Amino acid sequence: MTPCARSPGFPLARRRYADSLRKRDTGPRAFFFSLPLFAAPTPVGYRAAMNDSPDAPRSPFRGTPSVDALNALSCGTAMEPLGIVFTQIGPDYVRGTMPVDERTRQPYGLLHGGASVLLAETLGSSAGNLCVGDDEVCVGIEINANHLRAAREGTVTGTARPIHVGRSTQVWDIRIEDERGRLVCVSRLTLAVVKR
Fold first, then answer.
1. Cα atoms found within 13 Å of the Cα of residue 109, Cβ hemisphere only
2. What DSSP line would sit under 142-187, residue for residue?
3. Exposure of 31 in the CB half-sphere (CA atoms within 13 A)
4. Contact indicator for 157, 176 with CB cutoff of 8 Å
5. Model confidence at 27, in pLDDT bands (50, 70, 90)?
6. Which residues have a catalytic role annotated?
7. Radius of gyration of the chain (CA)
């Protein structure tokens, strides 16, 4: 960190320096320095579309996805024995539940972290696949999870929301809560969009 950055007058010093460059610079950098220094960033892509109308965010999903169709796809997969069920598809989220019982607990009686990650990847990758065309599929390339609170019984609910929905990658934020609405786990999933 430079000494100037630590001083309380740093933003003012930065503005003065930029002003001095603006006055003498007439080359290609002149346009850059004509932009305001401290303007709020303009949202782009999916987030910009969401900001058009705060009441009704634009959906990243193609077509009209159905909870029944997602649950039908889960038959005979890892989701079925763990009791993962899709419960809701909103304008920009997919939600599902998983029981905290003998199937999903670790030996110490707590919700197993791996089960939370399985729920997170299930919700995120399913949501991601609702955003691509019929000739494409989303596959997980990275997932991380922070386990914030123990769950011992009941049901946990996960909600996947997009952070970035692009042509070749997607990033999803998945939050898992207990029955009292307390955050149990937060996860981030990165997906690659590939041709079938």
1. 2
2. EEEEEE-S---SEEEEEEEEEEEE-SSEEEEEEEEE-TTS-EEEEE
3. 1
4. yes
5. low
6. 121
7. 23
